[in-house]
Predict the structure.
Amino acid sequence: MMRDAKARDYQARMQLTPWEYREEVNDIANITFISQAKNVQIGNVSPWQYLENETTKQIRKAHFIPENRELWKPEKFDKFLDQRRRSWRRP
């Protein structure tokens, strides 16, 4: 998210300062557990480019990642965070 051009467009559209943007990127709703090896393999590839092939539906469900692939795109980041928060708040 820090180097992705579309993500930076999101930052500009939302009028976020660099500090505010970094806070959103590091928000607890954007954190997931992956191995260091997987993180290195993914590198700077955006979630919308790797989630479908690098995860299963069960893994995404366990990590509260919405199945709506449109929400994986950087320009929908705020909606992605919102949906993820809603998912883990359900009883």
